[in-house]
Design a protein that fits this description.
With 375 residues, this protein is α/β, with parallel strands linked by helices. The protein is built from eleven helices and 15 strands. 37% of the residues lie in helices and 15% in strands. The strands form four sheets. Strands 1-9-8-5 form a four-stranded mixed sheet, sandwiched between helices. Strands 4-2-3-14 form a four-stranded parallel sheet. A four-stranded antiparallel sheet has the order 10-12-15-13. It binds pyridoxal-5'-phosphate (PLP). The site of pyridoxal-5'-phosphate has 14 residues, from helix 3.
Length: 375
């Protein structure tokens, strides 16, 4: 019999999610808005430290609404991390704004503040309006947010954190994203906690939160009939799915603990092999290790792709590091500041299975297969 597949980061229910969904059914709050959504937003606001949290249908939608509220449009630039997932960047395209990419630093793999400064200086010299800086918190690790805020603030450009992968991560003791004008989080199926699909936009700016809420429900004027001066979107999170989110929030600390334990196991078992290294964790970061990411250099003997295929033979899923946006055909004509660091990570990196429901046997098999690849 074929062994059950080990996935990269599958959903892991805590046990109370279905009770919460039943609560929604019992009260017939199947319509999008309802008490589960209000409670999920309140609890997420407490977790993130932001004063306001708006539940949305995706992390991509959260970034889209943030950019729309900031007035991003034709002729504007929006600055992104090049090492990210496409959902971070497409909101700029939806609005006709131009994405400009900034490379990673080697310390955290996130947006390099020095290169960001170069990008902002250059765009300012050209007289371009920059609608926002959107740094990603990659693989469950915060960017150096204070440095990014400082540089962006000098240019008067707001920062919206793409913390989609960083629910539960800390930066200098505060939640990832906190300190930016706003932060977007994702509860997609592969993230550390999931509502099967969903997102959250958090901010301390109450008018901004209200505007995001309003845009997410078709931008309707306060009239009994449906009156519209502009267009919005249908981006609210469903009350039923918020019920799943409530159950998942109960187990978030346990999920973070287990993700970090899985990382420690990989590092202890593989870290001594020639050429093996892992995503670093700067002293200001407490990463969730949403995914454990390993890098290989020449002395390991084979390429990350060989390791991926060897794991696949055992029905084990692993995946290359995100292909940088500036290397994507879609963005062939886009500007990039730096680029070598993320290109190197893409060539040398491999994301290892990091599911919190994996057994000790699963983990032992994975490291055995990887050790078997080493020279
Ligand atoms: C998952 C993800 C998104 C998009 O979130 P969705 O909820 O899937 O729309 C955006 N940015 C990054 C970095 C992500 O990993």
């Amino acid at each position: 019999m074929e062994r059950k597949r080990i996935y990269l980061s599958p959903p892991h229910m805590g046990g109370t999610e279905l009770d919460q969904v039943h609560r929604a059914f019992d009260s017939n709050f199947i319509a999008p808005l309802g008490p589960q959504l209000a409670e999920f937003e309140q609890r997420f606001s407490d977790l993130s430290g932001f004063g306001h949290a708006v539940g949305l249908s995706s992390g991509t939608g959260a970034l889209h609404l943030a950019l729309r509220c900031l007035g991003a449009g034709e002729g504007d630039a929006v600055i992104f991390s090049t090492l990210t997932f496409i959902g971070s960047v497409t909101p700029a395209l939806f609005l006709g704004a131009e994405p400009v990419f900034v490379d990673s630093d080697t310390e955290s793999w996130n947006m390099d503040p020095a290169l960001l400064e170069q990008a902002l200086d250059r765009l300012a010299a050209e007289g371009r309006r920059v609608a926002a800086v959107i740094p990603t918190d990659i693989y469950g690790q915060s960017c150096d947010l204070d440095a990014i805020l400082e540089v962006s603030g000098r240019h008067g450009v707001p920062v919206v954190c793409d913390s989609a992968e960083a629910v539960g991560a800390l930066y200098k003791g505060r939640h990832a994203g906190k300190g930016a004008l706003a932060a977007a989080y994702s509860f997609n199926g592969n993230k550390i906690i999931t509502t099967s699909g969903g997102g959250m936009l958090c901010t301390d700016d109450e008018p901004l939160a209200e505007r995001v809420r309003w845009f997410s429900q078709q931008a309707r004027e306060p009239e009994p009939h449906y009156e519209h001066n502009t267009f919005g979107y249908n981006y609210r999170l469903s009350n039923v799915l918020a019920g799943i989110g409530l159950g998942q929030l109960d187990v978030l600390p346990e999920r973070v603990r287990r993700k970090r334990e899985i990382f420690d196991f990989y590092r202890a078992e593989l870290g001594e092999l020639p050429g093996v290294d892992f995503m670093p964790e700067p002293e200001w970061s407490t990463a969730t290790r949403w995914l454990t990411v390993m890098t290989l250099d020449g002395s390991f003997g084979v390429q990350p792709e060989d390791v991926r295929l060897a794991l696949e033979e055992f029905n084990i899923e692993s995946r290359p590091v995100w292909k940088p946006m500036h290397m994507q055909p879609l963005f062939a004509s886009s500007r990039i500041y730096g680029g070598g660091v993320s290109e190197d990570l893409f060539r040398r990196g491999l994301c290892l299975p990091s599911g919190t429901a994996m057994s000790e046997d699963d983990l032992a098999l994975i490291v055995e297969v990887i050790k078997g690849c080493a020279a």
